[in-house]
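User: I'm new to structure prediction. If I give you an amino acid sequence, what do you actually give back? Let's try with this one:
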Amino acid sequence: MQPITVYYFGDLMEQVAIGRETLRLPPNVKTIALLMRLLSSRGGDWQKAFGQQRSTLRVTVNKQDAGPETPLNGGEEVAFIESVSL
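Assistant: Good question. You get back a string of structure tokens that encode the predicted 3D arrangement of the chain. For your 86 residues, that looks like this:
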């Protein structure tokens, strides 16, 4: 599978202290939900950020709204966008 590019925006970017990264996914990570589980497994702030679904977290794949079951085939741009500050 080709690598994916993951972007972190808003309050999420501050929480995990990164704005973008390129990931080569394991063969079993084929959906947004599984990607979030993989990111959560990093522990600490990553676990807090990706350990559970939240209404404040928006996900896009190739600039289109996406959900937990959206497939990942490689080469995508995935964006996690969260804003809880007022």
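You can read the tokens as a compact description of the fold. Here is one thing that stands out. The chain is about 25% helix and 30% strand.
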